[in-house]
Amino acid sequence: MTPPDRHTNHLGQPVGFPVPGWTPRERPPRTPMSGRFCDLEPIDVQRHATDLYAAYALDRDGRNWTYFSYGPFEHADNYRQWLSDNAALEDPLLHAIVDKETRQAVGVAAFMRIDPPNGVMEVGHIHYSPRLQRTPGVEVRQPERGLAPRGRAIRFHLRGHLPPGHRLQSPKPRHGMVFLAR
User: Does the residue 63 lie in any domain?
Assistant: First the structure.
């Protein structure tokens, strides 16, 4: 006998609670998001590439690139080309992290594995430059918006200093997959 608080599928396997009236979510828009110390802006290669290359170049030994499958970039033109190729993608949807005081791009974050039918996406591709590390800007909040209609139900909060390229995959305090509910 299945306890009343557990749900199973037709094979008797435990599954999550039903969500009555569920409908697929919309994809997140390419719009800026404002935070207390930093803003998140959809990547604009002309505006962000030079700042990002300069900020990442402060990492002299390339330590911040350890968990990425690309970089570090020896020349600004190589980074600009990589950024241009990837900024055009719908998934991952890259955003520059822009310092509110200096208005310089100091890092990158992305919405990834965007799955509108299931109302889920991952926040990942986190790459903080030395200009952003160990500053209040590493705590980024997204206003309620995204896949949810009418700007409801999505929030994420990054805490601490995540390793470069760390993908957020669980709802623990240092990690957070974005789940949507109606």
Answer: yes
